[in-house]
Amino acid sequence: MANLPFFWQSVVVILTAGGLIYLLTLGISIYFSKASDVHDVSWDETLEEGTNPAPAWWFWLGISAAIFAIIYMIFYPSFGNYKGLLGSSNVKEYVKHKENIDDEYYKELDMLKRSDMVALQFNADAMKLASNTFAQYCASCHTDSAEGQMNFPNLMDNAWIWGGSVEQITQTITHGRKAIMPSWGPVLGEEGVNKVANYVKSIADNTYVKGQHVAGKAKFQQFCIACHGANLQGNPIVGAPNLGDSAWIYGGDLDSIKTTITKGRNGVMPAHKNRLTPLQIKLLTAWLSRNN
Fold first, then answer.
1. Is 181 among the annotated ligand-binding positions?
2. Which family does it belong to (predicted)?
């Protein structure tokens, strides 16, 4: 204890000293008591409660503990503001050990900050930190395995909607993304939606037949090519996904594709610049770009 008012310091001293004296007196008086060995109290008719003293080892153990407590209180803080003969302080010990821990901690942080992406990717401790950060901040949407789920992309493949370079991933994590797929139902009509959906799916499944899908291709080139490209390869600048692979965020079956075309989609990746430190973002980027 430290910096106690005089009243509370007195209370601590009195209670501590009084408690020790009482316990010593009680223990000695019980051990050396000459009272009768048997009381009138009986249990279960034949079991009688006696007053035999505790075993000698138990008594001397208690006395030793009391003596140790007294010696300890002489040398270390115990009586209110009394700091002990050794002048020990828990605060000083805490500050000393914290300085040592902080020194090692910040040395490690500095090393990670100066490391390039390749070095971080081969640093098991760095990748463990990144994995823990992902589990805390990202797994709720992208799942623990980072393989995504309906409405949230898989981050373990190479189908990066906004680009998979170190700079692009860093940008995505730091500032977030917002993608808008407009609804084309009113423009294309039900028949047009069906044709475009069938054409897109045929490209993704590699089942394109010119005579069967040519009308859908024409509609696609008229309304969709600006964002998704002539070869359906997508455009990471505007967040338009590649439609020629199997990496579907909102479902790749025909009905899901029709729904996407008809009603549109709005995808939002929140910015994490105020949630994560620059080092955490760097570690996450290294962890996510390992497969690139």
1. yes
2. Belongs to the CcoP / FixP family.
Q: In Å, how far are 168, 174, 187, 268 from 180, measured between CA atoms?
A: 18, 19, 17, 9
- Residue 185 to residue 86: CA distance in whole angstroms: 83
Q: Could you give the number of structural domains in the chain?
A: 3
The pTM assigned to this predicted structure is 0.65
Q: Is 73 annotated as a binding residue?
A: no
Map tokens 């430190």 to a residue. Answer: 277
Is 269 annotated as contributing to ligand binding? yes
Full residue range of the structural domain in which residue 166 is found: 110-176+271-291
Residue 141 is labelled as binding a ligand: yes
Is residue 142 annotated as involved in ligand binding?
Answer: yes
Q: For 28-39, what is each residue's pLDDT tens digit?
A: 777 676 555 555
Is there a single domain that holds both residue 184 and residue 239? yes
Does 39 appear as a known binding residue? Answer: no
User: Looking at this protein, which amino acid is placed at residue 147?
Assistant: E
Pairing outcome for strands 265-269 and 177-181: antiparallel
| 240 CB neighbour count, 10 Å cutoff | 20
| Cα separation, 228 vs 231, whole angstroms | 8
Output the six-digit token pair for 201. 């799916």
